[in-house]
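To whoever is covering the structure queue this week,

Two jobs came back overnight. Logging them here so there's a record in the thread.

Job A:
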Amino acid sequence: MKRNLLLLLLIATATQAQVIPQGFFVKTFSLATLATTQYSVIGSTTATVNGNISNTGGTAITASGVVWSTSTAPTISSASKTVGVSSSSFSSSLTGLARSTKYYVRAYATNKGGTAYGNELSFTTLALGPGDPYQGGVIAYLFDNSTPWLVVPGEIHGIIAATVDQSPAGGTRYSTIYSDYNYMVICTTEEYITAGIGNTQKVTNIILGGATKMCSDYRGGGYSDWFLPSRDELATLWSIKGIIGLSGSYFSSSQDSNNGNSVYGGIFDYATPYIGFVSKLWSNSNCRAIRFF
């Protein structure tokens, strides 16, 4: 009998310990509210995805970013993720993606209430990307949202760079004849992407030789549509300079509208991109042809 009474007393005590006394309450925390707003700059192994937190849930955001997976409904525990701390809009860079693969992505935000997710989006990575050998050279640049007028939905297009210099060892001058220098400035000051073709054609119609002719005469991979890049086209080669061996200074086909003896050039020995005016009289600059695909 005493043993049974002791057991009942222990059960009653344990039950009473779980009862919350009057006057006390348990505080709960709300999840954040957010959306996966868009994706952009889809490459062969990279992508950029944006999110927006419209309500933090009343407590500080301790982590935010994007989760992605080849399966639907990715979470921070089951998928790859980026990690940041934002209480409003943010942009996340996804890296290490597989080529030609469909991914599902969601923005997420974590606070004291837990982790909330935005709506799910999906995209497919490209089969090709900068640095890939292709059609007589190496892909330097893919047309994307920064050049929307060149984008063809469902197709991949961009810039291919030759893998060798078209100038002889030790470099060349912009033109082989001194009297040509001041003539070329009349027609080849355009600097934008796609301007290099027209610049090259105009110069080769005026002068007998030089950097533009060396590039237009190139037949790498059996293609005959190579040309000397414009200023902006030359700048796209920076990301693959190590792959195609760019070193020293290179001419573009974009000339100084105020000085007939100057042309935009790039110096590829620096740690950061440098594009500026160089003299056409230099005899040790190089030229590297590009083409579109």
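Job B:
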Amino acid sequence: MIFIATCSQDTTTDILMKEFDADNVLRFDIDRPADFAWDFNADGFGISENTTGKRIDDGTLSSFYIRKPLYTDFIDVPSFGCLENWRREETRELFRDFFRECQARGLVALVRCKDDKYGKLRQLRAAGKYFHVAPWHFFHGKLPAELKQGRWVAKSMTATPIGNDKIFFVKEVDPSVLDLSYPWFLQRLIEGEEEVTVVYVDGKTFAASAPRDSFDAEDSRKSIFENPCAWPRCELSQKDECAIKGFMDETGYRFGRFDFIRKDGELWFLELNPNGQWAWLDEKNEHGLVSMVADAIKSEDRVHLARPSL
């Protein structure tokens, strides 16, 4: 049985679930603990849905597919702590450890790389071998000399709220007015013609693009959140395909969604989200993207099932 760890707000999983045999998958929404009962002990584990009675345990688990096991409703935690935050962190850490155990047992589907994780810093360094990469700086305490000229955008390394339920979106800034007591991630503004996103699944690619002037802000995510719509599919050159494959081979990722800007016909690398949202590109599966991801998971699950029991 395939175990999918996510949250109740994950529409990508909503769409993906239609591709699976309902009897062969258990969806766990971390933000809905009242819907489940679980027990992990020295002899194994068991997780059950309270409404249906569906159960997964050591004897039936074949694959762990991690989607978005996160809490989308932020809470203010007082300095002395609170029970709700404790409950969330205990549950989150348990299933993180469960994921790590499944990874060690070779049961994780799709979302993994050969070297734990490539964060933004390591991604940018690796990407320079395969794509155009605009100059960038992670800095604190002193403004780098390069930032005193040209146009720059500020980014964030995490999705951590910055207060009042606000998220740090990409925004053009004047580096000279930044408060240097905070850490900053700045990259030179890329004045390209279109945004390109590419979903990579086991050597296959699905590319889509949208003109940059169709967005109301520097960060296309803001427009996607406020006015979600599918982007038209686009073609990748053989050079682009080879570069994407080279990057994925080096990092060891089998799955992920790239974000690029196309400038003068060339791709400029922004980032790889190794488990980003992708279903919005083909919600009705008219172009086969949903099936492509589901088939990759099911194919790997068959490999797991064929292995001798550990």
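Note for Job B: The longest strand covers residues 255-263.

Please reply-all if you pick these up so we don't duplicate work.
Q.
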